[in-house]
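Example 9 (inverse folding). The structure is encoded as follows.
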């Protein structure tokens, strides 16, 4: 058997934009080892000029609230269909239930080619955070129905955790269409060795417990809860907010300026150093299907305090590697932060447990699993 030809439809291919882009790039970096010949359709290509594979750029639009994040709009169907027909893909792999994902699914159905998708995001849950939007519950229900119908057209949906598989089934996706495929972490890039006393000193955090949050700064990451948390943290705690997004200005103006530091968006070694130089990671988001940043924090030796929702509740072992907290409850978050600040023995135990868990989440093993799933689709 020759190389497997896969057409990838990924709205954003640029690394560090979000967890979807980062996961996609982990797969791309190992395509050669999987003996895959790819072609990519995207609205935002990588910055790297030496990207080794063929990219077809499709038009994109930007919305006012998320003008740093484009959404791909496939152009004329005939043009892309011609490119696909010439490529003769064995599998269609799409990343999001977006217009690009719908386009990919349509082609797969018309040509009777298996199509696979990874369940990355609770898109409909974002509607709850659009307070200006009327009839939110009605719109969310319609959106849920539309997304479910699209996933039902997939040959295989890869859910990152058991809770996400159960969510998809409860929404109407057939169980036989869903497999669990988790996420990995780069333990070379994220580990405690990157701890920087110089960075800690620049924060004024030598004698403080450093509480870290890393993510895109948007409503649905529960940025309002972080603002409230900043005002009740113990005096010897320092809140580090790493990321960029439309909520940053509001967060900077409303957070407790005496104990909150904004680093902006960081990547590569700067990001590794921020993780390793912190002590505790907080993640109040309710919309993440997995939470790659949670795994990165654990690999860096941080116990994680997260909302008991979405994917993180299947990653964190409550009381062992961190705590799962009632969503939106900054008082409960603060209480558990204080427990770890005061009980050094418990903190060290959780730190070790988090490190061990992250070391077991190996990207190479996950890619081997994915390769087998691709082969299985072709055999079927």
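The amino acid assigned to each position is listed next.
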């Amino acid at each position: 058997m020759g190389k497997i030809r896969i057409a990838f439809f990924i709205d954003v291919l640029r690394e560090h934009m979000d967890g979807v882009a980062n996961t996609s790039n982990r797969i791309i970096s190992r395509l050669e080892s999987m003996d895959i010949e790819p072609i990519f359709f995207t609205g935002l290509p990588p910055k790297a000029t030496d990207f080794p594979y063929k990219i077809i750029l499709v038009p994109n639009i930007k919305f006012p609230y998320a003008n740093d994040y484009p959404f791909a709009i496939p152009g004329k169907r005939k043009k892309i269909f011609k490119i696909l027909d010439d490529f003769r893909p064995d599998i269609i792999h799409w990343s999001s239930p977006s217009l690009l994902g719908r386009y990919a699914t349509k082609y797969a159905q018309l040509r009777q080619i298996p199509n696979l998708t990874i369940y990355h995001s609770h898109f409909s849950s974002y509607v709850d955070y659009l307070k200006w939007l009327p009839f939110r519950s009605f719109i969310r229900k319609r959106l849920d129905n539309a997304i479910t119908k699209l996933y039902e057209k997939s040959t295989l949906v890869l859910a990152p955790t058991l809770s996400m598989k159960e969510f998809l089934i409860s929404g109407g996706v057939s169980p036989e269409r869903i497999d669990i495929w988790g996420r990995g972490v780069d333990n070379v890039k994220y580990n405690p060795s990157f701890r920087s006393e110089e960075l800690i000193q620049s924060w004024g955090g030598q004698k403080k417990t450093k509480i870290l949050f890393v993510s895109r700064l948007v409503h649905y990451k529960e940025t309002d809860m972080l603002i409230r948390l900043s005002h009740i943290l113990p005096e010897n705690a320092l809140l580090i907010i790493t990321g960029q997004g439309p909520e940053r200005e509001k967060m900077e103006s409303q957070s407790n300026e005496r104990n909150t530091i904004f680093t902006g968006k960081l990547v590569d070694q700067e990001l590794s150093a921020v993780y390793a130089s912190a002590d505790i990671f907080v993640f109040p988001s309710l919309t993440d299907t997995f939470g790659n940043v949670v795994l990165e924090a654990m690999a860096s030796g941080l116990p994680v305090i997260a909302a008991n929702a979405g994917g993180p509740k299947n990653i964190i072992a409550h009381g062992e590697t961190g705590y799962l907290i009632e969503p939106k409850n900054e008082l409960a978050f603060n209480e558990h932060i204080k427990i770890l600040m005061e009980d050094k023995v418990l903190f060290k135990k959780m730190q070790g447990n988090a490190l061990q868990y992250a070391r077991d989440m190996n990207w190479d093993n996950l890619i081997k699993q994915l390769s087998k799933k691709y082969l299985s689709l072709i055999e079927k």
